[in-house]
Design brief:
By secondary structure, this protein is of the alpha/beta class. It contains 18 helices and 14 strands. Helix 9 packs across helix 11. It binds nicotinamide-adenine-dinucleotide and uridine-5'-diphosphate-xylopyranose (UDX). The site of uridine-5'-diphosphate-xylopyranose (UDX) has 19 residues, from helix 9. Uridine-5'-diphosphate-xylopyranose binds next to helix 9.
């Protein structure tokens, strides 16, 4: 089947950047990204590229190049499905908040709705690609829905999980370590579908980096890749507590073990805890799948990665409270950063939310500066926890658009995101305008301890007392 038109359902952090790059690299293919969220689509169509709905370095340039040529953002879901030979499903698959598997399983409601809509609309054969991260064997469910509710046309299901990381998405997409395509190579139609997707990626990705597997291996590999990455962060974070108890230096330890070529240096940065929409959700999903298969030891093993992450966030907040003479009631703690990592405006599962929640419980006032996150988003994040009223959250957590205003008069500073710009602030000026003693809790170990201590700060990093 010749692919002339692609539809992607879901214009989020994955659908938007991924399709922008596919369109950039395949100018002969029309790529339409659709979403139910009208506000999101109009932001993708905004002529001012600063208003794109997601912040991702380099994304604006690619959108600017391809949008209106062969890249389109639209609310007309049915039209785009009808036109396309290949449809990507890139909708959200959050952790279930109700019913069986609550708090663990992935909520497949949005994916199922897509499948039903594709089945209803499609009048010609389609290749349906799972781009969302899905539990193993979801393709089977999608195939069932498509075959049983469709108009008698043929659907080939492929799994093509996305490995981009936010903040580096454009580079990850341009030069991916690998592209993974799972499909049914036992039939002719299956083989052709796999080849059609391989061809799209092959317009810029070397063949040796395009891996084809069966569907289940592909689905499981995505969950496992995230689990392994998160496990490294929890492992190094567990050691950060040991360093604090013994005086070993966590960065020296990370460097020493990372130089072992079998271990490698990446993902060994101790932190206040991993966040983001993927790690926790995907591990919980892995734990749930293992449990439902009766593999309780496997489930417990992976669950510990999450428990350690929760512990690290709590420990960070408790350390602030303990250091500030065991009371933060009426004190101002200023946060540098709210996003779950630098170079993104995404705050999903950010450690900052949980640290703020614990400090607000102790009646602290929090002032936050983040270069890309809005005040409204911070309030949404806190309100979502449902710990206190919206009014209390609004009264005790303030957002400042100027970092120096955010830090002025604070009893302590907590660094929650590793934005580069924090390193070049005028720390002497900041010290002068803080309450004394002035504390810095560096949840990312990005600031220069020696310099800050020479100014007069009491510095506490992750893994350092
Ligand atoms: P997102 O929430 O940013 O975007 C999903 C979009 O889908 C939303 O805009 C929503 O309105 C839309 N949507 C939901 N149901 C719809 C429907 N029936 N019709 C049309 N639009 C619909 O989510 P995301 O971060 O882009 O993640 C999407 C998937 O990709 C998830 O499964 C996630 O696990 C996976 N993933 C995410 C990342 C990441 O870095 N964010 C990386 C790899 C994989
Ligand atoms: C992750 C995976 O990396 C990516 O392949 C997948 O497609 C989606 O999930 P993402 O969550 O966007 O990407 O960012 P990532 O760079 O993996 O960071 C996740 C969290 O771990 C962040 O909060 C980050 O600050 C934290 N982290 C990462 C550490 O605390 N220490 C590290 O050494 C690395």
């Amino acid at each position: 089947m010749e692919i002339k038109s692609i539809c992607c359902i879901g214009a989020g952090y994955v659908g938007g950047p991924t399709m922008s790059v596919i369109a950039q690299k395949n100018q002969n293919i029309k790529v339409t990204v659709v979403d139910l969220n009208a506000q999101r689509i109009s932001a993708w169509n905004d002529t001012d590229l600063n208003n794109l709905p997601i912040y991702e370095p380099g994304l604006d340039e690619v959108v600017n190049e391809a949008r209106g040529r062969n890249l389109f953002f639209s609310n007309e879901v049915d039209k785009a499905i009808d036109e396309a030979q290949m449809i990507f499903i890139s909708v959200n698959t959050p952790t279930k908040t109700y019913g069986t598997g609550k708090g663990m399983a992935a909520d497949l409601k949005y994916v199922e709705l897509c499948a039903r809509q594709i089945a209803k609309v499609a009048k010609s054969d389609k290749i349906v690609v799972e781009k969302s991260t899905l539990p193993v064997k979801t393709a089977e469910a999608i195939q069932n829905i498509l075959d049983n509710t469709g108009n008698g046309v043929n659907f080939e299901i492929l799994s093509n999980p996305e490995f981009l990381a936010e903040g580096t998405a454009m580079r990850d997409l341009a030069v991916p370590d690998r592209v993974l395509i799972g499909g049914d190579s036992s039939t002719d139609k299956g083989k052709k579908a796999i080849q059609a997707l391989v061809d799209i990626y092959a317009s810029w990705v070397p063949h040796k980096n395009i891996l084809t597997t069966n569907v289940w291996s592909s689905e499981l590999s995505k969950l496992t890749a995230n689990a392994f990455l998160a496990q490294r962060v929890s492992s190094i974070n567990s050691l950060s507590e040991l360093c604090e108890a013994t005086g070993a230096d966590i960065q020296e330890v990370a460097k020493a073990i990372g130089m072992d070529s079998r271990i490698g240096p990446k993902f060994l940065q101790a932190s206040v805890g991993f966040g983001g929409s993927c790690f926790q959700k995907d591990i919980l999903n892995l734990v749930y799948i293992s449990k439902t298969l009766g593999l309780n030891d496997v489930a417990d093993y992976w669950h510990q990665v999450i428990l350690m992450n929760n512990h690290q966030r709590n420990r960070f907040a408790k350390n602030i409270i303990k250091t500030l003479y065991s009371t933060v009631n009426g004190k101002t703690i200023s946060f540098l950063g709210w996003a779950f990592k630098k170079d993104t405006n995404d705050t999903r599962e950010s450690a900052a939310i949980y640290v703020a929640d614990l400090l607000l419980d102790e009646k602290a006032t929090i002032k936050v500066f983040d270069p890309k996150v809005t005040a409204a988003q911070m309030q949404l994040d806190l309100n979502y926890l449902n710990t206190r009223t919206k009014l209390e959250n609004a009264n005790y957590l303030k957002t400042e658009s100027d970092p120096y205003v955010a830090l002025n008069g604070a009893h302590a500073i907590a660094v929650l995101t590793e934005w580069n710009e924090f390193q070049s602030y005028d720390w002497k000026y900041i010290y002068k305008n803080m309450q004394k003693p002035a504390f810095i809790f560096d949840g990312r170990n990005i600031l220069d301890r020696e310099v800050l201590e020479s100014i007069g700060f009491t510095y506490k990093g992750i893994g350092y007392l």
